[in-house]
Amino acid sequence: MEAKREIIFDKLVYSCVFEKHRGNEEFIPEHFLGFQLSGETHAFHADGNSVIPENVVVLVRKNQLIRTIKYPAKSGKYQFVSITLDKETLQQYAFENKIVVDKKYTGKQKLFFEPDDFLQNYFVSLAPYINKKKEATPRLADLKIREAIELLLQCNPDFKQILFDFSEPYKIDLEEFMNQNFMFNVSVTSFAKLTGRSLSGFKRDFARAFGTTPKKWLLAKRLDEAHYLIRHKKQKPSDFYLDLGFENLSHFYASFKEKFGTTTTGL
């Protein structure tokens, strides 16, 4: 069964599934505030794996890659709602409230926390829009976003260092980043942005670091990892091909044989 994903208003997204569902890789371009209404979300990212259980709030920072698996609750339903905290809204809020960030946030990448009564009631207040019993006007939608910002800052004032840091991503170590994130099946443009580079700058620095193109390197890297998993971990391609960024098994098998001159069963 396909996942039900509805955009209730511009920045409010509701997801619902009734059986285990594997999501695609996602590039997160803006901060978002999420709430696990029912079931669990298993999130995979460069720093490891995280589990978002029921009734937990998550603040996810922008400019990163995430892959998810959605697990319904025992009742048979998975529900997750997210509010996007976009740069334009945050800049306007910071201007109106004279907020200045003088240092960067140094905490963990993923921020999971139990909601206080105010945040709990905030997500409850979104139910009429999710259930289509009430329609949000643009003005009302804007007020709900601002309310989310207010509640986050009330919950933890240090969150301002995340929300109101408008500096552009700086150039990071390309080689280290790619070796940590090669398994994500996203565009080269997304990889470029995540490393703080223009597309042309990324390709130029990539060639300097790896001596080849991103497309060729990614395929070779994924195939080498697959070879290791099959030969040394005795894993089956059907169990890991998606985790390594391959879109389908037929493409994986053909690429594997071309690179290693044998099928996966010949190892």
TrEMBL record:
Concerning Pfam families, the annotation shows: ExsA_N (PF22200), HTH_18 (PF12833)
Keyword field: DNA-binding, Transcription, Transcription regulation
Q: The organism sits in which domain of life? A: Bacteria
Note the SMART domains from the entry: HTH_ARAC
Instruction: Keyword check for Glycoprotein, yes or no.
Output: no
Against SUPFAM superfamilies, the record matches this protein to: Homeodomain-like
Molecular function terms, GO-annotated? DNA-binding transcription factor activity; sequence-specific DNA binding
The answer to whether the entry has keyword Transmembrane helix is no
In what residue span(s) does the HTH araC/xylS-type domain sit?
172-267
**Alphabetical list of PANTHER family matching this protein:** ARAC SUBFAMILY, HTH-TYPE TRANSCRIPTIONAL ACTIVATOR RHAS-RELATED
Q: What is this protein called?
A: Helix-turn-helix transcriptional regulator
In its UniProt entry, the species of origin is given as Sphingobacterium paramultivorum
